[in-house]
Amino acid sequence: MSQQPKKNPSWVKLRHRIVFAAFYPVVYLLCQLRYGIQVEKHKEKRQWLILFNHQTPFDQFFPCLMFHGPIYFVSTEDIISKGWISRLLVFLVAPIPIKKQMTDLRAVRNILQVAREGGSIGIAPEGNRTYSGRTCDINPAIAKLAKKIGLPVALVRFEGGYGVHPRWSDVRRKADRFPPMEARVAEIIEPEELKELSDEGLMGRIRRALYQDDYELVQETGQQYYSPKSAEYVERALYVCPSCGLTTFQSDGNTFLCDGCQGEWEMMPDLSIRPMNEYQTQGFISMGDWFDYQQDYIRGLDLHRLPARALYEDKAALYRVNLYKNKELLAEETVVRLFRDRITVDDDVFTFSELEAVSVLGRNKLNLYIDKEVYQVVGDERFNALKYVNFYYRFKNMEKGVMNEQFLGL
C-alpha cells in the first residue's frame, strides 16, 4: 500500500493570535516610549498583504498596532539563526525567513501557505532599512508576488522614522513637535484591482505610496530632531567624499570629518548637512543628496582601472551562519579587505564572480553567500559594511555588461 505524501504542518496557529492579543499593550508602550509614533488604525477585520517602507528597527511592530489580528512578517534569515532565541521567536510569532538579496523559493512557498491558511502577511519590499531617509529600491518581483497571493494590499507609509533614528546611528533624536513619527495607510488595492493591473502599473502604485523622504517632510512641517550625537557613526553609511572620492570619515558628536581632504560637516536639526570649512565649495543639502551622489559615483567607476591593492581594510569577527539554526564563531578578530574584484578575510578569498550575493544587515554586519554556505562579518562600531555591498553589485553589473544598472544592493 502506497503512503500518502505528508502535508506541510500548518503555519498559522491559535497561539499566535493569543500572543498577539496578550502582547499588544506591551508593544504599544514600547513603540510610544522609543518613537512616540502616532498610528492610523484600520479596524476592518480582514486578511491583508501589508507592504511598508523600512525606516527603523521597530518597523515590524507598527503594523501590529494598525491592523486586527496577528501578522506574519517576512524577516531576514539572520533573525531565525540565533539559537534558542530564534526558536522562541518562531514559537511565539512564526516569522517567515528569507535569504536577503537572493531568490528564495522556500520563502515564497511559505508566504503562499500563510495566505492559504488565512494569515495576514507583512513585507518591507525594500529589503533594507534606509540609510538616507529616502525609500530604497523596491524589487519589481513584489508585484508578481502580490498578484500571486491575491489578498487585498495595504500600502503603509512610515514618516519621520529616519529623523528619529537613522540606521547608521546608535542614538534616537528628540523631536520638538508631536508626533515625531507617523504611520498611515497610504493606499489599499483590492484583489479585483490586482487582477486588472499590469505588473508595471502595480509597481508604480507601490513605489509612489511607499516613497518617503524625511528631509522633505521636515521642510514641509518644520519638525526638528535634536541630539548631541546627531552625526556619530555616519561613517557606517558614507565612504565617498565630494572633494576626494573614495575615503574614510571620522565622526564626533554633531560633526564628521573626511580623512582625505579634512573637509568637515555638521548635521543640523532640520536633517540638513552644513559644511564647516570656508574652502568647501561642494556640499549636499541632505543625507539623501549625499547618499545618491555616493551611489552615482560607484555606478560610474570602472573597477578594472582601480589599483590592484586593497581599497579598504577593516577588523571584524567572522561567523558561519547555520541557516535557521545558529551562528558559529570562526574567528574573533580577522582582517577584512575590499579589492576591486574580491573580498578577503585573512587568507580566505571570496571573489565577486563566485559569490552569489552580498548583503548588509543592521548597522555593522556583512553577509557573504557562496554555494550553500553563509558567512557573516561583524565589524566594530565604526565598520562600514555598505561599501562591500556596493562594490560587489557594481562588479556584477559590469560582468553582465549592464554598465548603467542602478541597483547596488539597496
Would you give an account of this structure?
With 410 residues, this protein is of the alpha+beta class. It folds into three domains: 14-221, no CATH class; 234-299, no CATH class; 305-399, PH-domain like (Roll), CATH 2.30.29.30. Helix content is 28%, strand content 27%. It has eleven helices and 22 strands. It has helices spanning 14-35, 62-66, 84-93, 105-116, 141-149, 161-164, 191-196, 199-210, 214-221, 287-299, 386-399; strands at residues 37-39, 49-52, 71-76, 96-98, 120-123, 153-159, 174-175, 181-189, 225-226, 240-241, 245-246, 249-252, 255-258, 264-267, 273-275, 312-322, 326-338, 342-345, 348-351, 357-361, 365-370, 373-379. A seven-stranded mixed sheet has the order 1-8-6-2-5-3-4. Strands 19-18-17-16-22-21-20 form a seven-stranded antiparallel sheet, with helices on one face. A hairpin with a 2-residue loop joins strand 12 (249-252) and strand 13. Helix 5 (141-149) packs across helix 8 (199-210). The longest helix has 22 residues, at 14-35. It is globular and about 60 Å long.
